[in-house]
Amino acid sequence: MYYEMIGFHGEAQDEPLTDEIECPDLSKATLFLDLDGTLVDLAPTPDGIQVAPDLGELLGLLYERTEGRTVIISGRAIEDAAQYLQGFGGPMIGGHGAQERLVDGTIKRHELADETTVQRLGDMADSFAATHPGLLCERKPTGVVLHFRKDESLAAPAYAFLRALSETHRGFDLHHSKMAYELRPAGIGKDVSMRKMMQQDGFAGTRPIFFGDDVTDEPALQWVAAQGGIAVKIGEGETAAQARLEDPSSARRTLRRWTQKEH
Ligand SMILES: O=P(O)(O)OC[C@H]1O[C@H](O[C@H]2O[C@H](CO)[C@@H](O)[C@H](O)[C@H]2O)[C@H](O)[C@@H](O)[C@@H]1O
């Protein structure tokens, strides 16, 4: 069903394809890394994630090896994701593509993420969550999420509520992610941001690699695979990726192994 929604007509895989992923030449690659469920384990709440103590050092090494083309690409707001990745000064894409951190550190938001509308949507979702104590409302500069991890029976009401908001607020689309529903500006996506970045000087002509875990990562995994890049799915579930790793610690181990290999 999700594959129809995103227009994917290839062969989605649910089998482990390989554990031992080829070690790419990082000096000719652009490495896109998702955060939650990929570099860090999922937690009961967004602010409950535990970052491995050596993650910052690993990202620094990858940044060097890719000659500045290691990109964190997250659904989180950049201001939020960055607090868990202190010491990483490389490129960042946040809000599933609605924000971009420029080289001078400033954060650019997508013009489709109209501030007044985002504010209104956030206020309404906050009020809804206040009357449904098992829901957690996460406000982002470019959208809003209702998390139902604490009480899965609230998935349907959360969906219905955000669905109604998306129908009355043109320009915002409803997406399903892990134990959450989210409204984000229409037309944005990690795949869209990647395509744009890969056309820029310094990135064009390099091989894209993407590690991602969620259904929201599938269009980007599919795009990377179609470019002859390396698309790696972390964890279970149907995927268009050519490779799969069990969990974030396997992902970090693989990335560490790549930094140790000379080409
Ligand atoms: O693109 P990502 O970096 O993977 O971000 C996706 C979403 O991650 C966060 O939510 C998810 O992780 C939480 C912490 O583990 C978990 O509690 C929640 O159930 C997950 O949906 C983040 O809160 C979202 O904003 C991101 O879009």
Automatic annotation (TrEMBL):
<dbReference type="InterPro" id="IPR044651">
    <property type="entry name" value="OTSB-like"/>
</dbReference>
<feature type="region of interest" description="Disordered">
    <location>
        <begin position="240"/>
        <end position="263"/>
    </location>
</feature>
<keyword id="KW-0378">Hydrolase</keyword>
<dbReference type="Pfam" id="PF02358">
    <property type="entry name" value="Trehalose_PPase"/>
</dbReference>
<keyword id="KW-0479">Metal-binding</keyword>
<dbReference type="InterPro" id="IPR006379">
    <property type="entry name" value="HAD-SF_hydro_IIB"/>
</dbReference>
<comment type="pathway">
    <text>Glycan biosynthesis; trehalose biosynthesis.</text>
</comment>
<dbReference type="InterPro" id="IPR003337">
    <property type="entry name" value="Trehalose_PPase"/>
</dbReference>
<comment type="similarity">
    <text>Belongs to the trehalose phosphatase family.</text>
</comment>
<protein>
    <recommendedName>
        <fullName>Trehalose 6-phosphate phosphatase</fullName>
        <ecNumber>3.1.3.12</ecNumber>
    </recommendedName>
</protein>
<dbReference type="GO" id="GO:0005992">
    <property type="term" value="P:trehalose biosynthetic process"/>
</dbReference>
<dbReference type="GO" id="GO:0004805">
    <property type="term" value="F:trehalose-phosphatase activity"/>
</dbReference>
<keyword id="KW-0460">Magnesium</keyword>
<dbReference type="InterPro" id="IPR036412">
    <property type="entry name" value="HAD-like_sf"/>
</dbReference>
<feature type="compositionally biased region" description="Basic residues">
    <location>
        <begin position="253"/>
        <end position="263"/>
    </location>
</feature>
<dbReference type="GO" id="GO:0046872">
    <property type="term" value="F:metal ion binding"/>
</dbReference>
<dbReference type="InterPro" id="IPR023214">
    <property type="entry name" value="HAD_sf"/>
</dbReference>
<comment type="function">
    <text>Removes the phosphate from trehalose 6-phosphate to produce free trehalose.</text>
</comment>
